[in-house]
Specification:
The complex is a heterodimer of chains A (437) and B (291).
Chain A: E1 3-4, H1 13-35, H2 37-40, H3 51-63, H4 66-76, H5 86-107, H6 116-119, H7 126-153, H8 156-182, H9 185-205, H10 214-233, H11 251-277, H12 284-311, H13 321-342, H14 345-349, H15 351-375, H16 389-412, E2 416-417
Antiparallel strand pairs in A: 1-2
Helix pairs in contact in A: 1-16, 3-5, 3-15, 3-16, 4-5, 4-10, 4-11, 5-7, 5-16, 7-8, 7-10, 8-9, 8-10, 10-11, 11-12, 11-15, 12-13, 12-15, 13-15
Chain B: E1 3-8, H1 17-26, E2 55-62, E3 68-75, H2 84-88, E4 94-96, E5 102-104, H3 114-118, E6 125-126, E7 135-136, E8 153-154, E9 157-158, H4 161-172, H5 175-179, E10 185-189, H6 190-203, E11 223-226, H7 246-254, H8 256-280, H9 282-290
Parallel strand pairs in B: 1-11
Antiparallel strand pairs in B: 1-10, 2-3, 4-5, 6-7, 8-9
The chains are: A mainly alpha (437), B alpha+beta (291).
The complex binds iron/sulfur cluster (SF4) (2 copies).
Chain lengths: 437, 291
């Protein structure tokens, strides 16, 4: 599939605004490093985790899920018509994870020790697994995005080298990951063999398509599955604090399923926004297809959540107290409503309702992560928590940075597919040269 | 055998000698506080903090005759047998020693504060005002557990083996226990202390409520309490269950290798099926590739 950089001006009023917001965040960060977390946040011994953990990190990871869901749809499930969404999604994922890392550097008490999990291996810690998964998956995303860079600069030799080395790298990564999580050589060997066989056999069986080696995609999906779900497992340690409407042994599965759903929602959302702001045309068919996938994923999320709460006999809690109300908003507005909208084929084909549903699903997942990390918690002691201005400024700066870097990268690298004919809907306003190579 | 501590709250007179001794031994600063009223208790400072590892909580309550009465509770790290904090920590900064203390290595910690979220008793605290913040909590005076007897001579006379041993024992006793004038706090072997708690409860029937807090909570703790006042009224969490907290996450962690292998096989299977189908539609695919 051919890609080309978006042709548009680099400096626009929007990009200047985003840059200013980033600078503002930088100023707050300086104060935070100078005077400690207490100086800029409302965090306390009662609420050690606040806005940054729940939004910048937990939502950041969830919203970056589009990279693996779309890659799975295209490369594994053979959904070739979604191919055009892969690179933008991988770029979003990569930037998303980079800024999850940046957010950690702000939130950690001693950020210069962020590398400590690399040398200290407490295999019983869920957070340790998340840390490793995120690190490894970031490298997978970088490798998935690398061809865009090679194409841009015409580095064909490196591209060839990349194609030859990536399969081995992928296999080693997944085997190594298994080893440090289990301290078991036997398991590491099993994983090494399974993935090595897949890596060796797949390309020879199927005249492998150009693009990303399938094994890299698989390892990306494996790592994503592991840490998307583990972000939920983090809260398994808090049965006393997290309300039973959210605390369930199913937490990892709920987190994984909602990440898959929001991954599709993000891809729809982004495709529509970039069509608007980059003046690109939109193809209705694939978007409506994504809408169907999103719809299915949302219904599954909703069903699993409700059945789980029912089976544990906790549903009554949904109709009493503030926490019950939060739960109802979480499942009915965040999952049910967009699922309902998308269940109609007409709605999936209407740009407005598709966009509305995708946005709802995104806001829904953000609200869900907030519910688990903050709103659903009962924390003893008198000190409440509401994020400070400084916390909001940092969070806004992070989002601005991702948006700004995404638009810059889309203008520099071949991220979007080359436009040959006008698609459905919005007219392509950008000058359409015949490509630059 | 691991060391433990038995707290008999019926004996506590809230002199706070333990609170002061803890501050002294750990070299902790004083706190600026304001008067703190009910319902959380009337103690000052109100809660544990990076400067207060041991706290006596003052609870005003009405007894069965409707009279006002005070009850006191020592608050601090329970030194769980299977600590949630240690299982949470991604860099292994927290660990349970063979002697029973849950200790913290301030050269490893990177300040993620997961331990604070995970602790069922909300014990670990953080130095919010510091640019190089650390987690702070009771160490069970792990730094007093060595073989140091504190002194080897008295009046220039070397100590006998027997007195050395006595000094050593006394030195190993946590600072708070040593300071307690009423015998509320007792340091010893966990099994023996449990037996003693039961003895005290049978010796004076009706005096204690029938529960040793910490015997089974979250899989058992090294600090255990007996009391004449129900524990929930003292502000102790009473719905924690007997299951050790790390056992909630360990199945998930143990499943990783199997899940990774299974996913690998599953994805390959799906790929195989999907691409067999796709072969029939190769031409369509190629069209797409050119688009
Ligand atoms: S009480 Fe909390 S801090 Fe102390 S050992 Fe148990 S889990 Fe850790
Ligand atoms: S704050 Fe420090 S001690 Fe606590 S879990 Fe994080 S790294 Fe471990």
């Amino acid at each position: 599939m051919n890609h080309e950089p978006v042709k548009a001006k680099f400096v626009t009023p929007a990009s200047i605004t985003l840059a200013l917001l980033m600078i503002l965040g930088g100023i707050v960060a300086v104060i935070r490093y100078w005077q400690g977390l207490g100086a800029v946040t409302n965090l306390s011994d009662s609420y050690p985790w606040g806005l940054w953990i729940s939004v910048d990190i937990m939502c950041g990871v969830a919203l970056a899920a589009g990279a693996f869901t779309v890659a799975a749809a295209v490369y594994i499930f053979g959904g070739e018509k979604y191919h055009m969404f892969v690179r933008p999604a991988v770029l979003t994922g990569l930037l998303g994870y980079v800024f999850v890392g940046v957010a950690l550097l702000v939130d950690l008490g001693l950020p210069w020790r962020i590398w400590h999990p690399i040398i200290m291996w407490p295999e019983h810690s869920v957070m340790f697994e998340v840390a490793w998964c995120v690190m490894l998956y970031m490298s997978v995303l970088a490798l998935e995005f690398a061809p865009a860079v090679f194409e841009r600069f015409g580095w064909d030799r490196i591209h060839g080298l990349w194609r030859r080395l990536v399969p081995a790298f992928s296999v080693i990564v997944v085997a190594f990951f298994t080893y440090i999580m289990s301290h078991s050589v036997a398991w590491a060997v099993v994983v090494l063999v399974v993935f090595a066989v897949v890596a060796a056999v797949v390309p020879s069986l199927f005249a492998s398509r150009p693009g990303v080696p399938i094994i890299l995609v698989m390892v990306g999906i494996v790592l994503s599955t592991m840490h998307q779900s583990s972000l939920g497992s983090l809260f398994l340690l808090m049965p006393g604090k997290l309300h039973a409407l959210w605390w369930t042994p199913m937490l990892p599965i709920n987190f994984f399923l909602s990440a898959v759903a929001v991954g599709f929602a993000m891809v729809i959302f982004e495709a529509m926004l970039s069509a608007r702001f980059f003046g690109r045309s939109l193809e209705q068919g694939p978007l409506a297809g994504l809408g169907r996938l999103l719809c299915g994923a949302l219904w599954i999320c909703l069903a699993v959540r409700i059945i789980d709460v029912l089976l544990r006999g906790e549903l009554g809690g949904a109709f009493v107290s503030g926490k019950g109300f939060v739960f109802l908003v979480d499942v009915l507005v965040g999952l049910g409503l967009p699922a309902l909208i998308l269940s109609s084929a007409r709605a999936r084909e209407s740009m407005t309702s598709l966009f509305t549903a995708a946005t709802l699903a995104i806001v829904g997942v953000v609200f869900n992560r907030l519910s688990v990390a903050l709103l659903g918690m009962t924390i003893p002691g008198k000190v409440g928590y509401f994020p400070s201005i400084g916390e909001f400024i940092i969070t806004i700066a992070m989002v601005s940075a991702v948006v700004l870097l995404f638009t810059l990268a889309a203008k520099i690298f071949p991220v979007f597919t080359r436009e040959e004919q006008d698609g459905f809907g919005l007219p392509a306003a950008a000058p359409r040269a015949a490509g630059n190579r | 055998m691991s060391k433990a501590c038995l707290v008999d709250l019926t004996k506590c007179i809230a002199c706070r000698a333990c609170q002061v001794a803890c501050k002294e031994w750990n070299g902790l600063e004083a706190e600026h506080t304001e008067f703190f009223g009910a319902p959380g208790g009337y103690q000052n400072p109100p809660a544990l903090s990076s400067k207060t590892f041991t706290l006596i909580r003052f609870v005003e309550m009405t007894d069965s005759d409707g009279k006002l009465k005070w009850a006191f509770a020592r608050v601090g790290c329970m030194h769980c047998q299977d600590p949630a904090c240690a299982s949470a920590c991604p860099v292994g900064a927290l660990s349970k020693t063979a002697e029973g203390a849950v200790v913290y290595d301030d050269t490893k910690c990177f300040g993620c504060r997961y331990c604070m979220m995970a602790c069922p008793f909300d014990v670990p605290t953080f130095q919010w005002e510091s640019p190089i913040p650390l987690i702070r909590k009771c160490t069970f005076c792990a730094d007093r557990q060595g073989d140091d007897a504190g002194t080897t001579s008295v009046n220039d006379q070397p100590l006998s083996e027997e007195s050395l041993a006595r000094h050593r024992d006394s030195n190993r006793t946590p600072a708070c226990v040593k300071a307690c004038p009423t015998g509320t706090l007792k340091f010893g072997e966990r099994g023996q202390l449990l037996a003693e708690a039961r003895e005290r409860m049978t010796a004076e029937p009706g005096k204690y409520i029938d529960h040793i807090y910490g015997e089974q909570e979250v899989g058992g703790t090294s600090w255990m309490y007996i009391s004449d006042v129900p524990f929930d009224q003292l502000g102790f969490p009473t719905d924690l269950g007997k299951r050790s907290y790390p056992s909630y996450t360990s199945p998930v962690m143990k499943a990783i290798p199997a899940v990774v292998t299974g996913l690998g096989l599953l994805l390959s299977g799906v790929y195989w099926v999907a691409n067999r189908k796709a072969k029939a539609g190769t031409s369509a695919q190629e069209d797409n590739n050119q688009a």
